[in-house]
Design a protein that fits this description.
The structure holds 2 protein chains of 2 kinds. By secondary structure, chain A is of the alpha/beta class. Chain A is built from 13 helices and 11 strands. Chain A has a 5-stranded parallel sheet with strand order 2-5-8-1-9. A two-stranded antiparallel ribbon of chain A has the order 3-4. In chain A, strands 6-7 form a two-stranded antiparallel sheet. In chain A, strand 3 and strand 4 form a beta hairpin. Chain B is an alpha/beta fold. Chain B contains 27 helices and 9 strands. Chain B has a 9-stranded mixed sheet with strand order 1-9-2-3-8-7-6-4-5. In chain B, strand 2, helix 16 and strand 3 form a beta-alpha-beta unit. In chain B, helix 9 packs antiparallel against helix 10, helix 9 packs antiparallel against helix 13 and helix 10 packs parallel to helix 13. The longest helix of chain B has about 40 residues. Chain B starts with a helix and ends with a helix. Classes of the chains: A alpha/beta, B alpha/beta.
């Protein structure tokens, strides 16, 4: 696929989803970038911000199958992956696939389920396959998990451990829309807008999506940009406020998302802006703060911002 | 187009000249006086100099310091020489203008001063300032709007004016400092390689913050040498530097083109545009005269494209360099300072305040004459908290001293000094006695051996003082000297005689120095300037009126620190939104207690928790400590150690043990808890 075509399809996909999910263009772009980069997305935000609608709409626009898992404290791993059920008619055990066997999976409130259930999903995300009773079954391609979790001060939650968080390519903090956007939304509803009844056109097919993933290879990356990415990620390992920094997986993720961003703009080369655009989303969930820093109110975003401000960009002023 | 390095220096010199001119005009405007600046509120007439005559022979007044000074040509010459200084405009400037009241008082006696002030007659023939501007004087604000009663508007305008002047001066000062820094860098960079010399590939060889034209020159050199990538990087840096010079962006090594463009758009959303070869500008955009944001955007994006896409093109690099040169020339700061030039103030037509040092009512001439007469003179700025040992005479003319300072002078005089006070203030009278009270006097000033001096509305003492009378006004004492313990005090009823215009008549100068007596040692000169300097920073703040502001600021800081809590004694919990988990919060708190040396307190709480946890987890039917510890321990010995640790731990803050002992107890308790967890886990696994 040519980069111009890539850019056009990207823009059309985002615009089409934006017809239904109003005022959340950055989230839509992050979801699409994650999909194109072959990663998964973690959204943190309160209910009512259109997360389910987003994934459902994305599935419609991409012509992809959609599955939703509502995580609760009593959710079992087999509720996620599926399991063998005895069929009395055929007297055989039949495998009933779980909701994870969809191309787009919404894992709602993932931090409400116990660690065992979380692991089942996270293993599927990593391996792109599910093993039940010794039989390994491949998950469909492309495969995107969009997980949501409540803000961390809520009671009765099981926070994802740091090692599991690393499996998510991007983490986005979803905030309330601005007053103007919310007013536009209400105006749209007054004018008869109904997201449930709105028909979305399919813009991309699964094959085209895979093609887009392969097109990323056409985006050239200069050695100084690679060095810049490496410096950014390695800075997280030495930062005074960080106990555990980002792994090389973060470097790869940053590279891939930056390439996807450049391609979405029709560019066949990477610039430092592409890297900076996704630094927060890539790094914020991979950093373990030092308790002292946490006590002082420092957040992961603050640390990433300070690292970005202290790291010289290639080709910039001295 | 090659940028001209010399042109940059010329612009810099011109800017410096303009800045100096502006600063000068600003300072002079700051000295623009109120129309009426007479502290007494009423201009008094000046003593008139009578015709010259010689003193009677043999008559020498018996002053403590010396014999009376007869009129002598010394003062005539001294006065004339000093008045040649062009700063005495009232004496030398034929275009000088008086204020009305001053004109009426002085010009009626112009004959007395003509000898030393040849232009005075011309100045007296010119209309006063008030007629020039057709405004009435208003002593309350100095800024009156044609008597319309809008005095408050005048006050507001006055404030706005000084505020604006302050901002202009501050801006110029800041620009001067920046220029100086850039000049130093340019001086350092003048040893940079010439265009013909080879340049290294790595672009970080160049010193930080080179000036725009230097970067452009280096970029041109790199391009000529075939180092395209380096030329592109230098062109980029030059572009950013040009934008920074115009204060459109603040450069930083961590900022990308996107960051700069965002700040140029005032942090609005940067909509990404399609990258298309056909969008790229071709050649030098010389025909386009606008410096628009879109052009800057396109220029930076083109630079990024060539820098970060493999295989930069020489012709494209040349085109971008030319664009950068055009951009830099358009953003020259000269335009800004030329605009400032148009707003400069005009010094030379500003009226001179009568009371400024070289004005008619000033005292500069007296000081100059005193400096010529005395072996050494010190113009005292600091408060008079002590008098130098070498001082033999202290002359106080119009000095506003505090009671403590008069007391200091009193002690010094009592020890053998000579104090001369003109127009004694009430604090002096309180310290030295009320016999020096004054009242108005009309008449002629007379002193033994001195030519009588006619005066209008001067002051004299109410009654004869206890000392020797040095001069009289009519029949009242005008100046006298009194023995004061081991020293002498010479008191002069008023200080008009010490003013410049008064001393312009040399006979007056003779009288004044006669009254001062013999100045044969170091002289301390006190005036209205005395005490304006501060002894310490606190006094300086108080004088500036900032004392209350500083106090409020300190109070705010204290309240803020109190609200945040002290780290070592009162740890402040983080807000709920930032706390991740209780365990991590507890861990962080424990570190704070550790820093506070509160290990005993922490151990006590931990021990209580361990005890409570063991009771809940341990498989024991009895809750006493012996049974409990036996239930969780593998042996009697272990149980005893655990019991001991629990007992000590629960009273850790009372027993006064060391931190190391606390840590040992803590470890023992921790292993006990972990052991219970292991036991519980094994039992659970067995059940599974």
């Amino acid at each position: 696929m040519e980069l111009q075509e890539f850019s056009d399809k990207y823009e059309r996909t985002v615009s089409e989803v934006s017809r239904v999910v109003l005022g959340q263009r950055p989230i839509i772009e992050h979801a699409l970038i994650a999909l194109i980069s072959g990663g998964h997305l973690l959204l943190e935000g309160v209910p009512g911000l259109g997360k389910t609608l987003l994934v459902r709409s994305l599935g419609a626009v991409l012509g992809a199958s959609f599955g939703r898992i509502q995580f609760t404290p009593d959710l079992m791993p087999s509720d996620v992956t599926g399991g063998n059920v005895f069929n009395a008619k055929s007297s055989n055990f039949e495998f009933i696939p779980g909701p994870v066997f969809n191309q787009l999976v919404l894992a709602d409130e993932i931090n409400r389920a116990p660690a065992k259930t979380q692991s089942a999903l996270l293993e599927a995300m990593q391996e792109r396959s599910v093993t039940v009773d010794g039989t390994t079954r491949e998950l469909p391609a492309p495969f995107l998990v969009l997980a949501t979790q409540n803000p961390i001060e809520s009671q009765g939650t099981y926070p994802l451990p740091e090692a599991q968080l690393d499996r998510f390519l991007l983490k986005v903090n979803v905030t309330y829309p601005s007053q103007e956007v919310e007013q536009e939304l209400l105006s749209a509803y007054v004018a008869g807008f109904n997201p449930q009844k709105l028909k979305l056109s399919q813009v991309l097919s699964a094959d085209e999506l895979i093609d887009m993933q392969e097109t990323l290879q056409k985006v050239q990356v200069r050695p100084e940009i690679l060095e810049y990415i490496t410096r950014l990620v390695s800075s997280t390992r030495d930062h005074r406020s960080i106990d555990v920094g980002a792994s090389p997986r973060a470097s790869v993720g940053l590279l891939q998302t930056a390439r996807a961003h450049a391609a979405s703009l029709g560019r066949d080369f990477l610039v430092p802006d592409d890297v900076k655009s996704f630094a927060h989303a890539i790094l914020r969930h991979r950093l373990v703060l030092h308790p002292d820093a946490e006590l002082e109110g420092i957040t992961q975003d603050d640390v990433v911002s300070s690292i970005l401000a202290e790291t010289s960009v290639p080709g910039g002023v001295s | 187009m090659r940028p001209d390095l010399r042109g940059g220096k010329a612009r810099g010199c011109l800017f410096a000249l303009v800045a100096v001119l502006l600063l000068t005009t600003s300072v002079c405007a700051a000295q623009a006086p109120a129309i009426s600046d007479d502290p007494s509120g009423e201009l008094e007439s000046l003593p008139e100099a009578a015709s010259a005559s010689t003193p009677e022979e043999g008559e020498t007044p018996e002053t403590p310091a010396s014999a009376a000074l007869p009129l002598n040509p010394f003062f005539e010459k001294e006065v004339r020489d000093h008045l040649q200084d062009g700063r005495y405009r009232f004496c030398q400037d034929p275009n000088y203008r008086f204020f009305r009241a001053e004109k009426e008082s002085l010009c009626s006696q112009v004959e007395a001063f003509e000898q030393n002030c040849p232009t005075l007659r011309n100045a007296c023939q010119r209309p006063p300032w008030e007629e020039e501007f057709k405004t009435e004087t208003d002593e309350s604000s100095g800024w009156n709007l044609n008597g319309l009663g809008l005095d408050f508007v005048g006050v507001i305008l006055k404030i706005l004016f000084w505020l604006t002047m302050g901002l202009v001066v501050a801006y110029i000062a800041r620009a001067l400092i920046r220029r100086a820094q850039l000049w130093r860098e340019e001086l350092a960079s003048e040893t940079a390689p010439t265009p013909a010399s080879p340049l290294k590939e790595r672009q970080d060889n160049f010193p930080e913050e080179l000036r725009t034209h230097v970067l452009l020159t280096l970029a041109r050199a790199s391009l000529d040498s075939g180092k395209i990538t380096e030329a592109l990087h230098l062109t980029y840096r030059a572009t950013i530097r040009a934008l920074a010079d115009a204060e459109w962006v603040k450069p930083h090594r961590s900022k990308t083109s996107g960051d700069y463009l965002r700040s140029l758009r005032e942090r609005g959303p940067l909509t990404p545009t399609r990258w298309d070869e056909s969008d790229a500008p071709q050649g030098v955009p010389g025909a386009q005269s606008d410096l628009s944001l879109d052009r800057v955007t396109m220029h930076l994006r083109d630079l990024d494209r060539e820098r970060f896409r493999g295989g930069p093109r020489p012709e494209k690099a040349s085109s971008l360099l030319a664009q950068a040169e055009v951009l830099a020339s358009r953003l020259s700061p000269l335009l800004i300072f030329l605009a400032l030039l148009l707003s400069g103030c005009d010094r030379f037509n500003a009226p001179q305040s009568p009371h400024e040092p070289y004005g008619p009512r000033g005292n500069q001439l007296f000081e100059d004459l005193l400096r010529a007469q005395a072996p050494s003179l010190h113009r005292r700025l600091q408060r008079v908290l002590e008098v130098p040992e070498e001082a033999s005479t202290v002359v106080a003319v119009g000095a506003k001293l505090r009671p403590l300072e008069w007391k200091t002078l009193n002690n010094w005089v009592s020890g053998g000094g000579h104090l001369v006070v003109a127009a004694p203030p009430s604090q002096f009278l309180d310290e030295f006695g009320q016999e020096f009270g004054t009242s108005p006097c009309e008449g002629t000033l007379t002193a033994p051996g001195i030519v009588p001096v006619k005066t209008d509305e001067t002051r004299a003492f109410k009654s004869d003082t206890s000392g020797e009378i040095l001069a009289r006004c009519a029949d009242k004492p005008f100046a006298s000297t009194v023995e004061w313990n081991d020293g002498w005090v010479t008191v002069i009823a008023d200080d008009h005689l010490f003013q410049n215009v008064s001393l312009a008549a040399s006979h007056n100068a003779s009288l004044v120095f006669h009254l001062l007596g013999n100045l044969d040692g170091h002289v301390e000169y006190l005036g209205p300037f005395t005490g304006r300097g501060s002894q310490n920073p606190l006094e300086s703040i108080t004088r500036a009126g900032f004392g209350w502001w500083v106090f409020q600021l300190l109070l705010l800081i204290v309240i803020y620190a109190w609200s945040r809590g002290k780290r070592l004694t009162s740890p402040v919990d983080p807000s709920g939104s930032t706390r991740r988990a209780f365990s991590e919060h507890a861990r962080a708190l424990s570190r704070m207690y550790e820093r506070a040396g509160a290990s005993g307190w922490a151990l006590r709480h931990y021990s209580e928790w361990v005890y409570d946890t063991l009771r809940r987890r341990a498989p024991s039917t009895r809750s006493d400590m012996k049974s409990l510890t036996r239930a969780v321990s593998g042996s009697e010995q272990e149980a005893n150690k655990l019991r001991e640790a629990l007992t000590i731990g629960r009273r850790a803050d009372e027993l006064g043990e060391t931190e190391a002992q606390h840590h040992a107890t803590f470890r023992r308790l921790k292993s006990a808890i972990l052991g219970v967890s292991e036991v519980s886990h094994k039992k659970t696994s067995k059940k599974d």
